[in-house]
Amino acid sequence: MSTEQNREQGRTRPLGVAMIGYAFMGKAHSNAWRNVASFFDVPAFEQKVLVGRDAAQVAEAAGKYGWAESATDWRSVIERDDIDIVDICAPGWMHAEIAIAALEAGKHVLVEKPLANTIAEAEAMTAAAASARAQGVQSMIGFNYRRVPALALARHLIAEGRLGTVRHIRAAYLQDWLSDAESPMSWRLRKETAGSGALGDIASHAIDQIQYLTGQTITEASGLLKTFVAQRPGLDGLEDVTVDDTAWATFWLTGDMGASVEASRVATGKKNDLQIEVYGTGGALTFNLENLNELGFLDATAPVREQGFRRILVNEPDHPYLEAWWPQGHIIGWEHTFTHQIRDFLLAIDSGEAPSPSFEEGLQVQRVLSAVEESANNKSTLTMVKKNVFSLEGA
Amino acid sequence: MSTEQNREQGRTRPLGVAMIGYAFMGKAHSNAWRNVASFFDVPAFEQKVLVGRDAAQVAEAAGKYGWAESATDWRSVIERDDIDIVDICAPGWMHAEIAIAALEAGKHVLVEKPLANTIAEAEAMTAAAASARAQGVQSMIGFNYRRVPALALARHLIAEGRLGTVRHIRAAYLQDWLSDAESPMSWRLRKETAGSGALGDIASHAIDQIQYLTGQTITEASGLLKTFVAQRPGLDGLEDVTVDDTAWATFWLTGDMGASVEASRVATGKKNDLQIEVYGTGGALTFNLENLNELGFLDATAPVREQGFRRILVNEPDHPYLEAWWPQGHIIGWEHTFTHQIRDFLLAIDSGEAPSPSFEEGLQVQRVLSAVEESANNKSTLTMVKKNVFSLEGA
Amino acid sequence: MSTEQNREQGRTRPLGVAMIGYAFMGKAHSNAWRNVASFFDVPAFEQKVLVGRDAAQVAEAAGKYGWAESATDWRSVIERDDIDIVDICAPGWMHAEIAIAALEAGKHVLVEKPLANTIAEAEAMTAAAASARAQGVQSMIGFNYRRVPALALARHLIAEGRLGTVRHIRAAYLQDWLSDAESPMSWRLRKETAGSGALGDIASHAIDQIQYLTGQTITEASGLLKTFVAQRPGLDGLEDVTVDDTAWATFWLTGDMGASVEASRVATGKKNDLQIEVYGTGGALTFNLENLNELGFLDATAPVREQGFRRILVNEPDHPYLEAWWPQGHIIGWEHTFTHQIRDFLLAIDSGEAPSPSFEEGLQVQRVLSAVEESANNKSTLTMVKKNVFSLEGA
Amino acid sequence: MSTEQNREQGRTRPLGVAMIGYAFMGKAHSNAWRNVASFFDVPAFEQKVLVGRDAAQVAEAAGKYGWAESATDWRSVIERDDIDIVDICAPGWMHAEIAIAALEAGKHVLVEKPLANTIAEAEAMTAAAASARAQGVQSMIGFNYRRVPALALARHLIAEGRLGTVRHIRAAYLQDWLSDAESPMSWRLRKETAGSGALGDIASHAIDQIQYLTGQTITEASGLLKTFVAQRPGLDGLEDVTVDDTAWATFWLTGDMGASVEASRVATGKKNDLQIEVYGTGGALTFNLENLNELGFLDATAPVREQGFRRILVNEPDHPYLEAWWPQGHIIGWEHTFTHQIRDFLLAIDSGEAPSPSFEEGLQVQRVLSAVEESANNKSTLTMVKKNVFSLEGA
Predict the structure, then answer these.
(1) Which of A83, A280, B306, D103 is the S-S candidate for A166 at Cβ 3.0 to 4.6 Å?
(2) Chain segment C118-128, per-residue pLDDT in tens
(3) How far is B373 from chain A (nearest CA, A)?
(4) pTM for the predicted model, two decimal places
(5) C328 vs A: CB within 8 A
(6) CA neighbor of B299 nearest in space, from C303, D291, C153
């Protein structure tokens, strides 16, 4: 039954929500479900059931995070009549199977990024999403940073032409949690289980933002990947790390734009530093996720004497999402990017308008990541620097 | 006569200095010559003669900038017995001819960067410098940012191991003086006269710093170049801009390091924003030329609870070059990178130890720039992003 | 029954919580109650009942904010056997009556700051709290900024001697929501209802911090008060504003310390700018509430060459309260100062150890505010500047 | 002979300059004299003679700083016919005698701040300046921070009404060079020789700025002074420090404004941190001397969504004094506040218009300092905080 039909017929009960996975992302999504209705006007829903593999642990998590029940078999859960929404926080290699099954069962689906670990899976998911959408069943991928108020404001300003014609974007996502070479091996560091390293995990956010903020599409990519810590201690001695810990990429976009991204998990001292700079003919914007309540804005049409990057504290009722929160200057935390995401997802379900970012948009990001990897594997991307005839030593 | 001979025999008169060129760089170098002896103990010298093409203008400039005489024929000046040092601030295409002639005439030579507009010229200059050096005649290229106290301190900290093993460097040089598409055509925007655009003019500083700070050498390069404003108003209508206004490059260095540089003259709102970040296993450094009296430093060996990037105000007597200046916290300006450069050049002449950066080091930077251009011209550097089967419009 | 008795006998049911008031502070406290158990190990409790004057509105708020029931008569609620805790978010003039009644009824009490509008009321409350405490009934005043992780860390660092001997503290609390002279009259701007203006509302936070961070007590005060916008539009035309909109104060503390506070509601462009600087013989700290996840720290025992204020991103598991939250660099919002406050209050009830800040501490802040007002009303505080004999005009 | 007469009659030779004193301020002033004509169009002048007490040392300083001669007897120098300008960098207690003698001898006088150590001396100097001015002989006091381009821009913006009606100013001048209690005793720490401590030395700059930026006059003052390090090692053991090392003051100004100043020489970690904030009904400004090329500006008339403090890099040709210097973004140093001061002083001499700040303005600052001291000595300025009946220990 399509949402529109649902609305016409009058939904007689709250939407039932099931969530699969209760690790880091499960905790963050639960927090959003638990709080969204205290701040925003959203259709009624219930946190019905949390699904995980370990019965005891998932039961405890359900209690802690506000879910009425817990379960271990996601297949039976998505078949339940009282479940309308499936929120998938399981690891990436499980996304395709669960999402396709849920969509086919007529459930609205929210899936964490990355969409899938392979292009083939992502394509299958996208096809399933398109079919479901035709039936009024919605789907969305969790690029939650689109719901940072400052970045939503940035997109508005760009769309309104406040930057003139955008020329280039500089982005970086820098963390340091793998800086220590003694930090142990894990599934995130194996290509088979993780797909890629810093590239897929965090550069993907930057890539989505580049396209989201400008409304343009990346068409060509040049990239390099590096694994600075090539081996890490496993259970039986050192094991090979088979994904990158640092990634560099340069892009051409439609609209005659250029962009660059650098992502690292070994950038000592940087904790969660997603930084974005957008340069246009009429202005510029800057952003850093470690100060996510702020947006830098330079209006190049002001008299030169008065120009300068201003720090907008994006905490006013006039700012996206902020009317729901606290008085001006009382900053909100990282977690509410998810609260806003759930709000928008629920409103889309209610209105019957397809939410964004769609699986198609998630697939596009996967294709960009794939092109970066292909370029990085291509020997011709790099040019040797010729040696000086005169050595510095001999000088 | 070599400096060593000179010292042994006792120099009986102050060093005579001639400077060629009196535009932006000439003004900056003159300022350094005029002030260096008021702050530093340097060998005695005299600002003898300023050389330029327009007799009246160069005479006026000489008076204003503290030169005893002016002249229009650089060839006769470098032959004068009372001239010991030739400081070349003429445009890049004149560097090779003047520098080689001066070195052959036994004059110590300081030449502005870039070393030359072509690799062939740079090689010839480097050969001449090597020959002259064997005779005690010194030469140096003006990568003046090596004399920013904060960057000199950065190099010390890295050399002392305070960053552990350096892994990657992020650098950018962002300006916006060509952001306006109506800004007119000039010789700096033609490949024949300027060699390249943002790449050679400003990325070169970042490239020199990457090698200077780490003590490593760039061996491979990947790059892309872009000219956002492809035509500009000339005297007779629109003319083609034949150099880049934005450049992106990624590098591998000896020592298993990676580095990236982005340079732009159209980064709206950025004025002289040379930013450098260095990440090592034991710490990190950050720098921005718009706040050149500051160095960011994170010591990753401190307890996690207390870690954070600190802003070192590099204005203490303990800091490089600073004992000569003002009390702590009284910041110095950009111009004194040149004052320090002249000081170090004079001390090298006095001691007979070859100064750095040498012409060889300048040539190495030219080779890196050349590799970036070659990569940028190579079609294989870029990989196409495959289009989604499902168009966003159709969704 | 004391908590200790309660624990010994085994509490057989969750603690029942009632909250009185559902405006700004009620929303913030509710959010804390709703979420605290999802992040922290706290004794079991239930959000039983929300109390307000308007039956329909309080019922709606109760549903939105997670309370099981609503009520309009606080007196009957505090008598209920299933209520163990009373959280008072009603306006200041109601604090004394409710708090004393609740304490006498054996309920643990959390009361928002200021403790009361008059010293007499505050003294009566403090006496009631002391009596109740002797019976194991706890009480606490909501100086929530003590639970900012960065400020809790600051207190630890000072207590550990990392600043050496603290000499002076600079604090300011700057807002601008009354900068607009057309902003209307309200109860907050009348002395009868609000007690004071910026002084009691926001300077009180700064005063509490000065004493909390240093562990010292303010003994003498000098102050000035000013009302820049003396009249504001009321329902029947302009009305007199009878409280300050800007306050300045200087203090002497025990321990031979000095401190200053400036508070303003008309500091254009400042939104929620509580800034604190602490200077000691061995180091210094800086803080700003608009970036509440950060603490500035300078270690003056480091070599001069490396000294500088560092920005500690107080988001590590090693930092106070942070283990419960998100991975490093994922910042938390202002609201969780209340979440932490509820956690600490619940743990104190559970352990039977009196929580801090106590009503005595709240009373001490009231006495300091009173001394500031007294000084401000004293003509002798100000000295006239003699006029120049030579007028500037006549010069 | 008045300047006007001089101009009418045609000055036939460059202005002859004598400078008295060659310590810190003498070095800074010399630098300004040596460079001003290389950047600005100023009337011709010559650095004639440097005067000091020690013949050998002053001769060496003269050579280093660009003075043609040196001398030890200031009285004979100010009588010389070839001297037109006397620049007084001697200690404060010598100002009155030298300045009055020089003015009476018909020499234009620039005197370092403070004007004098006593009000009586300052009044005598002001009288002498008024008499001399009537004869076309100019005088000026060296509040050099009026010549910081960013502060000159700030004054323009305020005068143009860009801040609407200014309400309050917050200023502080924080240094830490006396933070170390082992730092030795000196004449600067004795009341007889220094007049006062942080108050006269650095708070005076902040006080001058408050009046300069707003164009208003301080009429009333409340202040407190403190000497945290009361004894310091002298030649024969510990000696009493008889001046303040920290000062707090609050002011009322004409124009219904308030202002506060805090000055400290023991603010650990702060080097030369003169910070100024100006709040008006229509905007606000912020400044910090440690980043003197920047001005913070908030335009409160912009849409709320876009408001924020902008960082203006005051380095554009459109900015005060900047046309003379380097291209945009190439920052200038602290020393050029003096270069600009000399420029303005020379232009005033040339035009015959009295320069500002005049001795009258210097006297006004002295009177404010005096009022602060008087208030600080007045017991009634401070109010005791009553003790809590309930001790915290007993709780």
Answers:
(1) A280
(2) 999 999 999 99
(3) 9
(4) 0.96
(5) yes
(6) C303
